[in-house]
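Recall the central idea of this unit: under ordinary conditions, the amino acid sequence of a chain determines the structure it adopts. In this exercise we apply that idea directly, starting from the sequence alone.
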Amino acid sequence: MTTNPKLSIIVTSYNVQDYIAEAIESILSQSIGEIEVIVVDDGSTDGTVGIIKSYAELDDRVKPVLFTQNTIGGVASAANAGLEIATGDYIGFADGDDVYDSEMFGKMHRAAVKHDADLAMCQFMLQNAVTGERVDSDDKKNWEQIETITSMELDDKARRRILGFSPVPWRKIYRREMVQRGQLRFPVGDYFFEDNPFHWASVLSARNVVLLPEVLCYHRMARPGQTMSNVGPSLFKLFKHHDNIHNWLMQNGRQAYLPLLLEWVAKQNAWISEKALDEDLHLLLAELHPIVSQYALEEIEGLGFSKEGRTYKMLLAARDNDLDQFSLYAKQGRKKKVASPKPPVAQQPTHAARVDIEDIYFALMVIKKRIDKLEDMVSGLTEQGGASPEAKSRSFLEKLIRKVKG
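Accordingly, the structure predicted from this sequence is:
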């Protein structure tokens, strides 16, 4: 193992025997050699552990941490275990089933050192595990004005901007001294999207960030075996992070960001309420009411949402605990109602279920991208000239079939 690693890379894994070798290989082949690779497995029951052990035997940079059973904290518990033993000047994270460019960690580390940055961040894309198709993530919009490697001092305006980026940790590196000083950890509990509180704490703790507008990471989603069984009420647990973030803000004198936190709640609800089944809306309201009721009406009005918009009206309904109004505006946000049976009542969610929820979220992005492409094709069809209506229809149908098959 490297005596004084420049970078500690914490790889979290759980039942990813088909992908873990590729992930470890891509990390060991990074252009930065002075690394330690801390692979934390959360009690896998397939062949993942055996593969991890084989790499540890071949390369002394690999440090395995193997849980004997799956934990309720899932990725959070695994990531925290890695943070406890990391020794690098910087710390990075990697999912055991993702794909990393061989220059990713080297480029981020060199940029962070050059600009003396507490944080470094690159772009990522989504990769379908079955087809290999790669598509942009919704995070791409945040990079539109960033054309070259950009160092940014984190004043109040910049912090608010960076907080709007996707919170995923596996395309960032963090100065270890900052992580230790702030005792930054992922919240452990029956949660989803545990990276949200860590994202807030790290952005508000950092002095500066360097942005690399290059796609260097591919987040694999839609793995075989994933299900949609927990898409409903389980996803509502995202809102439990309000209190985690709220408590951190209060403990660290960052009360000025409380309105931004309420805005985060409103925006998360705006898209989750569109996906929720009618019979689950009372459960969503049960999560939101205790949160929104902490804020005064003036604070809700001060967010700047249109008073006629559903986002604002749903906040008011949540504050008043008015299920009829809340349901009314939730349904207004749906472009089309797709009949779907209520998922069966699930037992205590496992780590695998939590990971599936995140992948389902990304899968919805992919579906949205495909629909957008089809809409562009329809628009282009109406602008064509010369071809008969029959020929246009055949052409469109052929393209549609190819898109659906793809």
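Residues 225-230, 336-362 have pLDDT under 50 and may be disordered.
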